[in-house]
Amino acid sequence: MKYFKKIVGDKIYLSPINSDDYLKYTEWLNEVQTIYNELVNLGIYSGRLIAHEQIDDNIFLVSYQLENTQIKICLNYSFSSYTVGSTVVAAKSYEVIK
Prior knowledge:
Elements: E1 2-8, E2 11-17, H1 19-42, E3 48-56, E4 59-65, E5 70-76, E6 82-84, E7 87-89, E8 93-97
Antiparallel strand pairs: 1-2, 3-4, 4-5, 5-8, 6-7
């Protein structure tokens, strides 16, 4: 069985890794990679964050300024979908607002 180290305060614990944990981690890692690639393709890492506003409970709109354009992303941290203009943002998700 494989183990990973977990540090709590000044103590180190070894926790077993089971196949369910590994599968969840792998799924999560793939999702993170997909999101990262989308953000790279949008070019926000070469842009500048110009606004971060809460527009509703658990709903945020972030704006990035790139060289010649502005990108807005709606972040939905709630458990239900949310509509911004004509864009529906699924629960616990995000959408680029065009």
